[in-house]
Amino acid sequence: MVLPTLPADVDEIVPGVIADRRFIHEHPELGFQEHETSKFVAERLAALGAEDIQTGIAGTGITALIHGGKGEGKCVLLRADMDALPLTEETPVEFASRTPGVMHACGHDGHTAMLMGVARILQERKDQFAGTVKLCFQPSEEANEGGARPMIEAGVLENPHVDACFGQHVMSDRPTGEIWVNGGPIQASADAFKITVQGKGGHGAMPHTSIDPIMIAADIVSGLHKIVSRNVDPLDPVVVSPCTFHSGTAGNIIPDTAELTGTVRTFSPENRDLAETRLKEVATGIAAAHGATVTIEYDRGYPPTINDVEMAALAEVSLAKVVGEENVMKMRPIMPAEDMSYFLLERPGCYFMTGCGNEAKGIVWPHHHPKFDLDEDALGIGVAALAQVAIDYLNS
Ligand code: NI
User: Fold this and answer.
1) Which residues constitute the domain of residue 252?
2) Residues 384 and 295 in one domain
3) Are strands 179-181 and 328-330 parallel, antiparallel or unpaired?
4) Residue 2 domain flag
5) 118-175 per-position pLDDT tens digit
6) Cα 249 to middle of ligand 1, angstroms
7) CA dihedral of residues 14, 18, 20, 22 (deg, nearest 10)
């Protein structure tokens, strides 16, 4: 793959972006514990002259502003996540994690370093745009309770009022030089459920004296699989997966209870509501039909990540300026969830995927793997890409 020629100002700061990424990589911190990372970012932002630097938002989150030289205008929020994962690093790199059991295995070190690079570029290109760039470094994307929502609750979308949000995720299964983007839903919601069937235990030889929770839970499993096939529009992807089924202690005892847990993935708020409602109706109805009761815990995780169609189209044009039209690919939706979704539910925007895989360098491992690495040639591309998107949006 021939790498794109980067703008001269980006090319010049790439060594600094790589050094920052390596520093963050060496010192990974788990979600909501990014104290040193946050301090490092805040110092960098202050040094480059970003304004109104706010720290400690939702724990370790940071925002800062860069005002364009062309006067008043819109405000665009650019987001990076800062957290690492509870993994022991197994890469051969000299800047491997110094913290046992913690590792940047999803590329958030790259996201943070790239957004600091974007800040530098936008500070230097101030005279090219009107309005305001709000830089947003968020804690904890990997945990079930992410940092995006508390940052929004803390008011990061106001003062100044944010009109649009953009961000990027590196992708090791795509080669460096490609960027993947699309309008509409790109990542699924991730909800968890636990259904406990309360029957009535008894002797395995005398089932008529009991209410068998295993048989009822088995019916519920089968019923849950019909939500997707019978209730959801066949053109919309939805997953309802019962993933654990626990009950019983011995081969001749009908137990009192049975417990199912599982996950629900959807790409729209409507299907998310539908799946939750039908899951509860199906489980409750089947249990009632057999004289049992159920308790249902339904925990909503991240919502679906939905790119605004117009913002994605705008981003596509900007990204083509950086990597060439032939390297801007239409992204297919993926099932893992992402809390950039909260920003995109509140404001129009676009989240795109920046290729960071490189077979020739042996950078082929998937995200969340102890051998995960990113091709540092992708960092300059990501900086140029996000800076271009921000400028084009503000001038649109
Ligand atoms: Ni990630």
Assistant:
1) 191-300
2) no
3) parallel
4) no
5) 999 999 999 999 999 999 999 999 987 899 999 999 999 999 999 999 999 999 999 9
6) 40
7) 180
